Amino acid sequence: MQTQLKIKLSVFMFLQYFIWGAWYVSMGAYLFNTLKFEGPQIGLAYGAFAIGAMISPFLVGLIADRWFASEKLLAVLGILGGAMLCVLPQMRTFATFYPALIFYCALYVPTLALGNSLSLHHLANAKTDFPRVKMLSAVGWIAGLVALNALHGAESPIQFYLAGGASIVFGLFSLTLPHTPPKKAGANVSLGEILGLDALALLKKPSFAIFILCMFLICIPLYFYFVNLGVYLTEMKWENMLVKTSFAQVSDVIFFLLLPLFLKRFGYKVTIFMGILCWVLRYFALAHSANAGAAQTAFIFTAILLHGCCYDFLFIAGQLYVDDEANERIRGACQGFIAFILWGVGAFVGTMLAGKVLGKYALTDAAGKVIGHDWQKVWLTPAYLAIGVLVIFLIFFRNPTKQGATNVIAGTDAKA
């Protein structure tokens, strides 16, 4: 039974991230080149995912935990999300596209927490089996990029139809997952519990407060990569852009496996420091690639291949640090709180700033039409911001007295 369960959960993770990978990386190129949106509008569009992340705790806490079985809610969210994705190509102005995208993200983001929770609930040996099941998320993301590339859909609405069809399949497949009744049926759940505000007690610890501050601050330069990379690579005339960017997920798998070894050997401070440092190196590599001539491809691939260290050594290590610092009573609240900071508030601020910087360094012709961007200045902006975060973290963060490097890597999401 466990073997069958692990196969189902692996397929579930694959489909869930296939959906995400099929539109998230390429949307910037579609909005800029096809719909002719401006930089700030593209930033706001990517911020729709952050709004979904801020709404997600209400949906999961109020609905999934109290009234509906998880697999049924996943089915509803998947099918409705698929329908919404197929509607998005009809929205060709920012005034119509943006609210429709927010609505879709509010449907999709809760599936991430629900899927993790359902998996952990049913796996007999979660510490061993969950990371292996979760590994299929990276494979799904790569498959979404490769499929869209094969359809030549990076700058077309095909990406939303592809993701929409996959979302409907995902919703139907969710009905095959084991029954998972609501955990808090009939219980009174406070707003503070839903939002993870119980975790605020840990902010009394100076190192934990510094950690949360740095996680929020690093999200600001972080989203320059996701918002602007697609636009940059299309301006650079990169062929098979989506396949090439999928090497980030190959790197992600490698560093995912290396993470427990680094935590055991070096602890949280050095490991997370390396994660932030790799964001600095990634942006300097992209900045140098802008005017690098024949070396441009090497610099861009360097930035892509740093993804595993950038993401796993920073965010997954960070979530393990939170898990170590929290006690059993507030552990769930703490994970909810850090997710709210990273993929909610932090992502919203970061995507908006990334869009504004993209617009600021736009190059126009005599008629005012955008013909390119000063990419070196675009990429140097997050590089300098990341250096500031690195300095704050290095000076003020202290390792916890107890290390939990071998804890279960759970509740994490491998974003491109």
For the terminal residues, how far apart are their CA atoms? Answer: 32 Å
Order of helices and strands: HHHHHHHHHHHHHHEEH
Radius of gyration over all CA atoms, rounded: 20 Å
**Secondary structure tally: strands:** 2
Q: Which percent band covers the strand fraction?
A: under 5%
**Assigned CATH superfamily:** MFS general substrate transporter like domains
CATH 2nd-level architecture: Up-down Bundle
Helix content: over 70%
Strand order, sheet with most strands:
1-2
CATH fold descriptor: Growth Hormone, Chain: A
**Helix vs. strand class:** mainly alpha
Structural summary, described in words:
It is a single chain. The protein is an all-alpha fold and 416 residues long. The protein has a single domain, classed as Growth Hormone, Chain: A (Up-down Bundle). The protein contains 15 helices and two strands. Helix 2 crosses helix 9 (206-235) and helix 4 (70-87) packs antiparallel against helix 7. The longest helix is centred in the middle third of the chain and has 43 residues, at 247-289. The two termini are 32 Å apart.
